[in-house]
Amino acid sequence: MQREKEAMGIGIGIGIGIGIGTGTGAALPFGEASPWSLLGGAVAALLLVWAAQMLEWAWLAPRRMERALRAQGLRGTQYRFLHGDLTEDLRLVTAARSKPVPMDRPHDFIPRVAPLLHRALEEHGRVSFTWFGPMPRVTITDPDLVREVLSNKFGHFEKTKLATRLSKLLVGGLVILHGEKWVKHRRIMNPAFHAEKLKRMLPAFSASCSELIGRWENAVAASVGKAELDIWPDFQNLSGDVISRAAFGVRHHEGRQIFLLQAEQAERLVQSFRSNYIPGLSLLPTENNRRMKAIDREIKSILRGIIEKRQKATKNGEASKDDLLGLLLQSNMDYYSDEDGKSSKGMTVEEIIDECKLFYFAGMETTAVLLTWTMVALSMHPEWQDRAREEILQVFGRNKPDINGVSRLKVVTMVLHEVLRLYPPVVMMNRRTYKEIELGGVRYPAGVMLSLPVLFIHRDAAAWGHDAGEFDPGRFAEGVARACKDPGAGAFFPFSWGPRICIGQNFALLEAKVALGMILQRFAFELSPAYAHAPYTVLTLHPQHGVPVRLRRL
Asked: Where along this sequence does the record place binding of heme (predicted)?
């Protein structure tokens, strides 16, 4: 009988998992199990549950979704266990970045920036799928369907959880919020970006641009008529200086630490996207994860100091309210008043810090890349550089740009829109189906990533005509609405679209017009023979090898 009990004990131990022995290796009779064996059984049971969940997440669910997509006529790559197409994507990107874009077709760089999606569309059609780890990623290239996803009228589409979790370490705020909280923050922040409020920031734009112009003039003078310099770091510094002054009312050297930390954070974030899609990996104390969290704490500490200093000055009646931070704090106070003075209704200091992180990163990145690619394009197409300069001199002469003149810049606006079409700051947007939903006649299961390739759609010949891959600002002569071959196509959204359209787009365009105007007044420029045309993505579209340009003083 005792042996039967021992056998029963062993059987139960095996049934729930591998037991942890007491040192003798023998199983205790049923009813006399030690705490160690019970703990071992519980751990084993948890491991079995975890293993079953991982099997479902990494294999069974992806295979079901793949069958569901293929059954409806969609084609795509074959799912590979756990990593999907990430390994192949990394291989293709590494190979693509090893050589620049040929200068005979400089604007045709999609195969360099997004080689996997480019190949998938070529092989499997305009609506096809690849794999981001175990998540199917369906590429949507129809502008009407893209607008339907971005409008998100019924809340069917959400940002991917991975992007939201990791993005919080870089920006936070409106970018990652949803629902009522997003509505509240947007309502509080809207007044700060009103056109009338942006006019007040023009002096900050002009002051920063004047300092850049001064450095370039000194470089030209020292080089006897023509200087060669890399404009990419100069424009990063310029936009960082502008956002420091216009957003926080501080000088660039005070905000430079934030800029450097966020630049490092962006690089690390790209690395994390390739591995942290696996549940739990973002929580492990890896060097990258620890450093990203340390950077986030440091940025928040700097911003908290700036905000608390401003709040103290505001209480003493000392602070100017012409910058974004002052306008945001004032709008937040007004929101309290509108909501019967209940402090719980407004934004907390931590929420304001998150929005300031977004101010700084988006404000700096968007304008820096826009100005950089604009000077590249105008160097490649000097006839448009001449036309833009002629307009600037006609409107402003040698005077600093003013708000009334900026609003009359038609050619410069056309040029900037064409650069945004060919070189959008963000080349791809992603959304996720949180439940089964029909889109364009296809029923997508919950958990599918919808990839909205701005870069592809901005070059779609069906929307833009046979010259979609060429630089021609004239297509915007009658405005954005009529720029497409089909005016109803609506295939232009460099700042997203719908309710979540970038709140700072007017800020970025105003800054770009002021800077470009002041540069064209004083300099002619061309690309250096050493320039290698190599766009690549670090969240936004960067020049991989910088942009050496030759400047000549006019």
From this structure: 502
Helix (H, G, I), strand (E, B) or coil at 339: coil
The reply, when asked if residue 502 is annotated as ligand binding, is: yes
Two structure tokens written together for 222: 């020292």
**Which residue(s) pair with 538 in the sheet?**
540
**Per-residue confidence in pLDDT tens, the chain, 554 aa:** 444 444 434 333 434 333 333 344 444 444 566 788 888 888 899 999 999 999 999 999 999 999 999 999 999 999 999 999 999 999 999 999 999 999 999 999 999 999 999 999 999 999 999 999 999 999 999 999 999 999 987 677 888 776 667 778 888 888 888 888 999 999 999 988 988 888 888 998 999 999 999 999 999 999 988 999 999 999 999 999 999 888 887 766 667 888 889 989 999 988 887 777 777 777 788 899 999 999 999 999 999 998 888 888 877 777 666 788 888 888 887 776 555 544 457 898 899 999 999 988 998 999 999 999 999 999 999 999 999 999 999 999 999 999 999 999 999 999 999 999 999 999 999 999 989 999 999 999 999 999 999 999 999 999 999 999 999 999 999 999 899 987 767 899 999 999 999 999 999 999 999 999 999 999 999 999 999 999 999 989 999 999 999 999 99
Separation CA 41–CA 47 (nearest Å): 10
Q: Which two tokens stand for residue 130?
A: 């690849």
Amino acid at the residue 483: A
Answer yes or no: is 326 within a domain: no
Tally of domains in the chain: 1
Dihedral of CA atoms 404, 405, 410, 416 in degrees, nearest 10, equals: -100
Phi-psi region of 23 (alpha: psi -120 to 50; beta: other; left: phi over 0): left
> Is 184 inside a domain boundary?
no
Are the beta carbons of 444 and 71 closer than 8 angstroms? no
Instruction: Report how many helices (DSSP H) and strands (DSSP E) the chain contains, helices first.
Output: 22, 13
* Sign of the torsion formed by the C-alpha atoms of 215, 221, 226 and 227: negative
Phi then psi dihedrals of residue 540, to 5 deg: -110, 175
- Residue with token string 């404009």: 231
Name the pTM for this structure. 0.89
Range of the structural domain that residue 14 is part of: 2-68
**Is-contact 532 545, C-beta < 8 A?**
yes
Distance CA 549, CA 554 (A): 15
Strand-by-strand arrangement of the 548-553 sheet? 226-230, 548-553, 523-527
Angstrom distance (rounded) from CA 351 to CA 171 = 11
Q: How many CA atoms lie within 13 A of 550 on its CB side?
A: 11
- Identify whether 209 is part of a domain: no
The alpha carbon dihedral of 172, 176, 181, 182 has a sign of positive
Q: Please answer whether residues 492 and 145 qualify as being in contact, where contact means their C-beta atoms are separated by less than 8 angstroms.
A: no
Assess if residue 250 is contained within a domain.
no
